[in-house]
UniProtKB/TrEMBL annotation:
The keyword DNA-binding applies. It holds the Pfam family HTH_1. GO terms for molecular function: DNA binding; DNA-binding transcription factor activity. The keyword Transcription applies. CDD domains: PBP2_Nitroaromatics_like (cd08417). This is DNA-binding transcriptional LysR family regulator. It comes from the Bacteria. Belongs to the LysR transcriptional regulatory family. Keywords: DNA-binding, Transcription, Transcription regulation. It comes from Sphingopyxis italica.
Length: 303
């Protein structure tokens, strides 16, 4: 009934569109097909799988358990097929109008994405680039189904479906406002511990890497403020005597707009490394190979 030789592969792309868009009309717009054509394809899919696949719930078509079971493998197979077809054709950066979606955590977008955009569009002026946030537990799925082409993140647990390239690590620096009454161009550990601190993180609780390093030394610091973004922390530092630690490249971007004192962190902290991730099915994609090479070269430059 479902042997590949007798199966219309176009139906799988239509199934994927209905699953992703939640309805026949939305899938038709996405695929630039008529609504009757999508409805007819859905009827054929239901016959092929002997299952309704989608049932109406309000204004959406909700997948059945059978549809949910095949959705991931179908998307991964379609992605692999697209990559194989792309690999068979030449990729011309100067001519392509392709959109690339790069997964970037909120904290990692600021230091390098603007320079990456300039570099990419210098070679491929007609491309579109999107910086897309993601949940780590969904990263493999997003890379498999094409919601992301590549992703930048810290070291993640190994997964046979993902490839990765180590991009390097960078030190933390401490930021204090100019004119700080206790900090003037240098910072020792005693002063660091005596002052209050800011953490910038999307996590609602938990220690920073500085706190873990201090704990190994039997020491603690006082975190007086917790916020979600480095820009907010920078603004708070500018109007207070608090200290804030962040990666050197982040600090360089913000310091160019709002100068502060940038100081060496007075305790040993192992800098966290970053990686470039992509799905194994996209390994042979020439367009992504070109983009990966640019990212590796651009992010390897000193901050």
């Amino acid at each position: 009934m479902r042997h590949l030789a007798r199966f219309d592969l176009n139906l799988l792309r239509i199934f994927d569109a209905i699953f992703a868009k939640g309805g026949v009309s939305a899938a038709a717009r996405h695929l630039h097909l008529s609504q009757p054509a999508i409805s007819h394809a859905l009827a054929r899919l239901r016959t092929q799988f002997d299952d309704p696949l989608f049932v109406r719930q309000g204004n959406r078509l909700v997948p059945t358990s059978a549809a949910r079971a095949i959705a991931g493998p179908v998307r991964e197979a379609l992605r692999g097929l697209d990559a194989a077809l792309d690999a068979a054709t030449a990729f011309e950066p100067a001519q392509t109008t392709r959109e690339f979606r790069i997964g970037v955590r909120l904290s990692g977008e600021m230091p390098r994405f603007s320079s990456l955009v300039a570099r990419v569009r210098g070679e491929a002026p007609h491309v579109a680039l999107a910086s897309v946030t993601f949940r780590r537990r969904e990263l493999v799925m997003m890379l498999a189904n094409g919601d992301l082409d590549l992703a930048l993140d810290v070291a993640l647990p190994a997964d046979d479906r993902m490839c990765r390239h180590y991009l390097g690590a960078e030190p933390l620096v401490v930021v204090a406002r100019k004119g700080h009454p206790r900090v003037d161009g240098a910072l020792d550990l005693d002063t660091y511990l005596a002052l209050d601190h800011i953490i910038a993180t999307a996590r609602p609780y938990g220690p920073g890497i500085e706190d873990m390093a201090l704990d190994r030394m039997g020491l603690t610091r006082r975190v007086a403020v917790r916020c979600q973004h480095a820009i907010t922390a920078w603004q708070i530092v500018a109007a207070s005597d608090l200290l804030f630690a962040l990666p050197k490249s982040h600090a360089a971007v913000l310091d160019a707009m709002w100068p502060m004192q940038l100081l060496d962190l007075p305790l040993p902290v192992e800098p966290g490394g970053s990686y470039l991730y992509w799905h194994q099915a996209a390994q042979a994609d020439p367009g992504l190979g070109w983009l990966r090479a640019i990212i590796v070269d651009e992010l390897a430059k000193p901050a």
